[in-house]
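EI: anyone free to look at a 252-residue chain?
SC: sure, send it
EI:
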Amino acid sequence: MFWKKAPRSDVAEQGAGATDLLIDVRQMSKIYNEGRENEVRALDNISLEVKWGEFLCILGQSGSGKSTLMNILGCLDIPTYGTYYLNGQAVSDMKPSVLSGIRNREIGFIFQGFNLIPALTALENVELPLIYRGMSREERRQLATDALISVGLEKRMDHRPGEMSGGQQQRVAIARAVAANPPIIMADEPTGNLDSASGLEIMRQLSTLNAQGTSIILITHDNHLAQMAKRIVTIQDGHIISDAPSKGGLDV
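SC: here you go
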């Protein structure tokens, strides 16, 4: 692994470049069509620090730059200017193969649209990313089973997405994200397609993961949902306009 999920007291064991900061963004910009009439500054000279084990929410309306920021933090894109250090190492200096390995092994992604394969069962959907990691059938089956049990779907493992509610499908997506025990979970509008009760259950799942040591980065436009995180960074027009502890948080 590029690093291991561990308490901050163990960061010295995480390898060269390790730090107590999970994320260190310095004067970062993302510009599309730079220098042209239709130039768009999706992110404009922002800086951000995130420590290991945080439950951070990035809050912003559509077009604010929050999804662009998540894509960069999740190693799906790189900044135009500035630097992004992930666990003490500059992302812009990494080879594509290294970035791919980080996305596959160190970051679990949860999306609003679930992104499940309709023809596969819940168990097979959770197993799929583990196949790409070269795991044996026995190992990935056990990890997928344990992950589905952890989200309360032990009786739904053989059901396909179309046979489950939206909340159950999102729990399958969470199980898929956490099956390999990644140190970071990035959740992009994870409750956007759910009713309020199902959305609250998903947030409880994320809070439980955070209590167990997983770093959570939640992306949302919903101020009420944001209050369930522990820290809220608000972004508007590509700028961070506030960074403060939440007023609530969610007990688990």
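EI: The helical segments are 66-73, 96-105, 122-132, 137-150, 166-178, 196-211, 223-226.
SC: 👍
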